[in-house]
Specification:
Strand content: 15-25%
Structural class: alpha/beta
Helix content: 25-40%
Length: about 130
């Protein structure tokens, strides 16, 4: 049950859709989420009224093609699964949206089952 937020500079609806598909497919392929488990917020920033800030931290040269991907999901994935996820997101973002891998910034935040309500005011994952 990942919740995904994607912020991209200068992205129109087609690019946002492509980035959303890239992230979703990577989640399905690398950590095995169900194909119908898609919850995303896709936001394009125009650089004037809203923008994204970035630098060349750790020697990665970023530019106006920057994309931030924030994934919140339940804990339990291995470091290898997360590394595969990051790689696959970068590959598919390039293939589907033309985003250079160096401009794909991904962060994962993990939480527990009780931290989710998927509707109806219920904690569906609470055991």
């Amino acid at each position: 049950m990942p919740f995904v937020r994607i912020d991209a500079l200068g992205a129109d609806s087609a690019r946002l859709d492509a980035l959303g598909r890239a992230v979703h497919e990577a989640l399905v392929e690398t950590i095995g989420i169900p194909t119908d488990d898609r919850f995303q917020v896709l936001t394009g920033h125009d650089g004037t009224r809203s923008t994204l800030r970035y630098d060349d931290y750790l020697g990665v040269r970023r530019d106006s093609g920057i994309v931030y991907v924030a994934i919140t999901m339940r804990a339990g994935r291995s470091p290898a699964q997360k590394q595969a996820l990051y790689r696959r997101i970068a590959e598919l973002a390039q293939e589907y949206a033309g985003t250079e891998p160096r401009n794909v910034f991904v962060t994962v935040t993990e939480n527990e089952s009780i931290d989710w309500s998927l509707g109806n005011g219920e904690a569906q994952y609470a055991l």
